[in-house]
Amino acid sequence: METKPLRETQDEPRSDATAQDVADAAGVSRIMVSRAFNPNASIRADKRTAILSVAERFGYHPDMAARSMVTGRSNLVAILVPALARAWESQEVDALIAALQRQGLAALVFRVSTDEPVSAGLPQVRAYKPAAVVAFMDLIAPNDLASMFGNSPAIYPHYGLEPPVPEPGVVVDRLHINQHSGIRSAVKLLAGSGKRRIAYIAGSDTRLASRTENANSDHDRFMALTNALAEQGIELAARLEGDFDYDTARQQVVNFLRGGGEADAFFAANDSSAFGAMDAVRYDLNRSVPDQIAIVGFDNIREAAWRAYDLTTVGVPVETRVAALMRLLKARLSDPKAPGRVETVTASLIVRSSA
User: Which neighbouring-strand residues pair with 89?
Assistant: First the structure.
């Protein structure tokens, strides 16, 4: 059966253009116009391109809010983060938003500050009734997410050696991040180069009662480090509170070493803290890296490969994490009532010149 050729028109863009206008001008059905705007719909590439060209000429784009009301399905995915200024969060959220947009989904980013009650910003999230919620948060226990977001299923990172066991009736998908093997490799590298006084620069005080122990990435990193040190017969030299922050970590290292503390290596909870530690060692204390003091970070952000730092670090590639999140999201959107799912990603050691 032959396809009708698309009609050539010189229509000017207009604010009241409809799908039917585009369908008439393109010589296709209204359903075909709808398919052209759905990245997952089955339609020939040349026909999609032609229809979208006509729609652009008309200035037409589907009203997603109206479509959501008709279909009962939203194309919105809420992303909850405690901060966007930190390098890792910004890079991961940027990659996730790009992946969502490629699938015809839109992102709503909410900053839920650790300095405010967790519940303060959540009514805004619920008001949009997103199709799903990706919660990069340590201050909410995963079992509380279902009641907080109503019918919007949630995806929640879980840090630990073993993957979580989904609980019956709790529709929360989990991205399990295994940090232990990568941290174990880092400790072996340090021990192999003769480092025996290894200090930890923590991200946050995970001993606070408000922290959810099973989800806190820093808590799990500290546990992984102490376990790896014990395997090598090494005692932790010190724990410094670095707040995942360059300036704080730099000052903590200066205070520690000038105050009589001893360390021949620092393992930092994130790369930004490792940068601060490295600059403290090199510029404030005039010691060499890695000969006198080795530095290891966590996350493997893009800046870790800069020549100025060339940081040895541990991390999961952001592309790997985002791909796993998208698999969870696609599966959940296709079957909203399915039991909770788990995807596992594993951190590895990236060796550069700082250790």
Answer: none
